[in-house]
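tl;dr need the bound structure. longer version: we got a ligand (D-xylitol-5-phosphate) that a collaborator sent over and nobodys looked at where it sits. i said id run it. heres the input, straight from their email, havent touched it
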Amino acid sequence: APKAIIAPSILASDFGNLSSECSNVIKEHGADWLHIDIMDGHFVPNITIGAPVVTCIRGSVERSADWSKGVFDCHMMVAEPQKWLEDFKKAGCDLYCFHYEAAVTSKDPAVSPSQLIKNIHALGMKAGVAIKPDTPADVVYPLLDGDVEKPDMVLVMTVEPGFGGQKFQARCMPKVAALRERYPELDIEVDGGLGLGTIDQAAEAGANVIVAGTAVFGAESPGEVVKMLRGTVEK
Ligand code: DX5
Ligand code: ZN
C-alpha cells in the first residue's frame, strides 16, 4: 500500500491563530498535509472558509518539492465544485477534492466527475473524489478504470460531511477495503472521527491518508497523536 499521510483537519484548530496553528502542526508536530474543509452552506448545512483564507495560510506553510509535506488538501463540500477551480488554484490548493454527489447533481450539465478531473489536472492540481457514507464505492470505479483521466485520491467519508467532532462510522470500512483490494496503489483517504480509538479499523481496511481534526488539535501532545496514527497505518 502507498505510504501513510497524516492530514490534520484545520477545522478543529484555533481560527484566531490560523497561520501559526497550520505551520506548527507540520513543523513541530510532524504532520504531512493540511486538510482544509471548505463548506458553502448549500452542499452541507455549515459554512467555513473560502479561497482568500487559504491564500493567507499558504503564506505560512511551505510545500516540499516532492509534495510529501505541506500539501493543501482542499475538501470541497460545495454544491458547485466547478465554480471554484481557478480561485483555489490561485490560493495555493494542491489537491482539489470534490464530492461525487455534488458533481452528479450540479446544475451545470457540462459538469461530470470525469470533466471535473480533467479541468483540475489542466490547472496543475491533483484531483480527489469524495463519497459520503451512503454513496457506494463502486461509483468511482469507472473513473479509476479504463482510458480516462483518473483521480489521484478517493476520500471515503466516515461521517456525514458538515461538522467536526462526530462519531466515526465503521460501516464505511468495507468500502475502503473494496477500494484497497481493487486499487493497491491508490491514495485512499478517510475523514471523520479518526483518532487513536478508530485508527486501527481504518488502517486494517487499507486507508493510507488519515484526516484527524479533533484528535490532533484537541490533544495535549499533538505530535504524539500524529506519531501514533502514522505508526498504526505503517504497521
Ligand atoms: C467533516 C470534515 C472533517 C472534519 C473532521 O465534514 O470533512 O474533515 O473536520 O473532524 P474530526 O476529525 O474532528 O471528526
Ligand atoms: Zn474534511
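gonna send this back to them w/ a short note. The pocket of zinc ion (ligand 2) is lined by residues 9, 35, 37, 75, 191, 211 (CB under 6 Å).
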